[in-house]
Amino acid sequence: MPxxxxxxxxxxxxxxxxxxxxxxxxxxxxxxxxxAIGAPEISPWLVLLNLAGVGLGLGNEVYRGVVPWVSRAVLxxxxxxxxxxxxxxxxxxxxxxxxxxxxxxGLGVQSMARLAVTQPMGRSHPFRFLDTLRGIPLQADAVxxxxxxxxxxxxxxxxxxxVYQPPLASAAPADGFPGLVMVYGGAWRAGSPADNATxxxxxxxxxxxxxxxxxxxxxxxxxxxxxxxxxxxLAFVLRNAxxxxxxxxxxxxxxxxxxxxxxxxxxxQPDAPPLRAVVNYYGPVDLLRGxxxxxxxxxxxxxxxxxxxxxxAPDESANALGGETVGDRYCAASPINYITPTLPPTLxxxxxxxxxVLPQFGRAMAAQLQASGSPTVLIxxxxxxxxxxxxxxxxxNQLALYYTERFLAWTLR
Length: 413
Hints:
Layout: H1 2-21, H2 33-41, H3 43-58, H4 68-107, H5 112-116, H6 129-134, E1 144-154, E2 157-165, E3 177-183, H7 197-205, E4 209-213, H8 225-240, E5 246-256, H9 258-267, E6 277-281, H10 287-292, H11 302-310, H12 326-332, E7 346-351, H13 359-372, E8 376-381, H14 395-411
Parallel strand pairs: 3-4, 3-5, 5-6, 6-7, 7-8
Antiparallel strand pairs: 1-2, 2-4
């Protein structure tokens, strides 16, 4: 029995500590990226695991045959793991206060209470410990879903989109539901409209028609192909909005990572269609600066991704580009170069631990948008890594959902 207890104690302590280390450690390789993304998001589970290790270590006297140093080592490891795993939870309150100030300042409202009443079906709290353990209530069983709607065929590539509509029982406004056009991420290389389906169903259950669109991928197709495809999809949505119960005068454009980049770029064009809001989850905004200011470590090889997307390094010759240089492409593909005072309100959400798109780029984008007079909200989640919302019930996505819902409810009201 002492040997069994000692082994069990050792496993609990070791697993808790090793997983908790990823709350603060950046991923050096793509293989370890899921650990760095996931650990902060499941921190409530890790807190419970480490508490179990601490309790078992303190209760070691029940089995006096356990080697004392094993018990002490496990106890110390569990205490260290407990501290690490609690770090995101310790920062939630401060982050929430900063987010509420950003929302009030950026949207010009007096308090979050005014935003809350516009969307009574949304999350009532920014964060709930229990929701991380039991899951965020989706209420999405009756959402209507239509997949693979043909939009266009470009260079032999069929472009489609998926539509998520509110349940039939939902009372539709006279002009239709507000619409959310969603652009997936994937380093411009991969992805499909089926990505982020849980989020799409969640939003549809709360009274939005979600249009999940597609675009051609690098390196086979390089910029501006992706922007052109997003523009084609937006034109399709505007033409067909009412057929799917959408109010074309209340559209927002949202993306994640590379999709957030394309969403901002499309919304900020001088000839962009009338959009009411843009939502950017951890998207690149200044590609030339992103090429030179690399994350350390750099698990995805940011330069290789940008070269695939834009056709080479900024300083390379580009004889095939008709007089345009590769560096010109980097500038033309950067949303930060299209800022004007007349842009739709923008919500930016970045992770402070992101080692793919550094949070400093989000801060710079927000500062320039604010300086132009464009309504802007920047929310930074200090513990979060890139793609934090892949863990839908995680700490970061709970906060992101709460403020995204209120931002959209206000801008699409």
